[in-house]
């Protein structure tokens, strides 16, 4: 019975006109070639040194919400970060042709800030970090002095140089400059 059914299917298929089969074959297998477009923007990878989290940012797209990514690692609390901070990181990466930015500190909870002050760390009493207005970062293969010079040239707010710790602080507060450890 199976042999008869297979023979019947084969004879029906061979009964279709040859031109119809060719047309069907062409219409299903012929797709228009893809239209070339602009090369997508290179992603910039942000790495949070304390939480060990990565965040890929496409500079050509709307910026993602980074409040959770830049949260205080000690209290695990986050707050609304200033919208200028991620563009600062992206501008630094673009200037130095870096695809990765290492974030040392974003938001710092006031309790953690006070604890650091009591332990003798060089943190301001009313740090811009506690307001969500500051970021400490560095770029691979870029010296701290090079990054510091670039940061000062931006004239966006406060810039701190931390040569020993090998990072730069940038904030969106008043323009001022200082050096730390």
Main beta-sheet strand count, sense and barrel state: 7 strands, mixed
Strand content: 15-25%
- Give the low-pLDDT segments: 1-13
Helix content: 25-40%
What general form does the structure show? elongated
Strand order of the largest sheet: 2-1-3-4-6-5-7
Task: Give the distance, in angstroms, between the N- and C-terminal Cα atoms.
Answer: 89 Å
Mean of all residue-level pLDDT scores: 87
Write down the Rg.
29 Å
**Please, how many helices?**
5
> Could you say which structural class the secondary elements and strand pairing correspond to?
alpha/beta
Task: Please count the beta strands (DSSP E, at least 2 residues each).
Answer: 7
Which sequence of SSEs, written as H and E, runs from N to C?
HHEEHEHEHEEE
Concise summary:
This protein is an alpha/beta fold. Helix content is 31%, strand content 20%.
Polypeptide structure, described:
This protein has 181 residues and is an alpha/beta fold. It is built from 5 helices and 7 strands, in the order ααββαβαβαβββ. It has helices at 2-15, 18-29, 85-95, 110-118, 144-154; strands at 44-48, 53-57, 100-105, 134-138, 158-162, 167-171, 176-180. 25% of the residues are buried. Residues 1-13 have low confidence and may be disordered.
Keywords:
single chain, 7 strands, seven-stranded mixed sheet, 181 residues, elongated, alpha/beta, disordered N terminus
Topology:
Elements: H1 2-15, H2 18-29, E1 44-48, E2 53-57, H3 85-95, E3 100-105, H4 110-118, E4 134-138, H5 144-154, E5 158-162, E6 167-171, E7 176-180
Parallel strand pairs: 1-3, 5-7
Antiparallel strand pairs: 1-2, 3-4, 4-6, 5-6
């Amino acid at each position: 019975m199976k042999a008869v059914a297979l023979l019947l299917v084969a004879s029906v298929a061979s009964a279709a006109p040859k031109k119809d089969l060719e047309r069907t074959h062409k219409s299903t297998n012929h797709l228009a070639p893809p239209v070339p477009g602009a090369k997508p923007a290179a992603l910039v990878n942000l790495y949070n040194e304390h939480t060990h989290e990565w965040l890929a940012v496409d500079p050509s797209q709307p910026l993602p919400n980074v409040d959770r990514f830049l949260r205080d690692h000690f209290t695990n609390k986050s707050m609304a970060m200033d919208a200028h901070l991620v563009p600062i990181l992206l501008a630094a990466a673009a200037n130095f042709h870096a695809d990765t930015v290492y974030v040392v500190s974003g938001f710092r909870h006031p309790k953690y800030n006070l604890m650091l002050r009591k332990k003798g760390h060089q943190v301001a009493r009313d740090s811009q970090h506690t307001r969500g207005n500051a970021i400490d970062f560095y770029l691979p293969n870029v010296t701290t002095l090079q990054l510091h010079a670039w940061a000062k040239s931006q004239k966006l707010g406060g810039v701190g140089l931390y040569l020993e710790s090998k990072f730069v602080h940038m904030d969106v507060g008043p323009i001022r400059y200082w050096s730390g450890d």
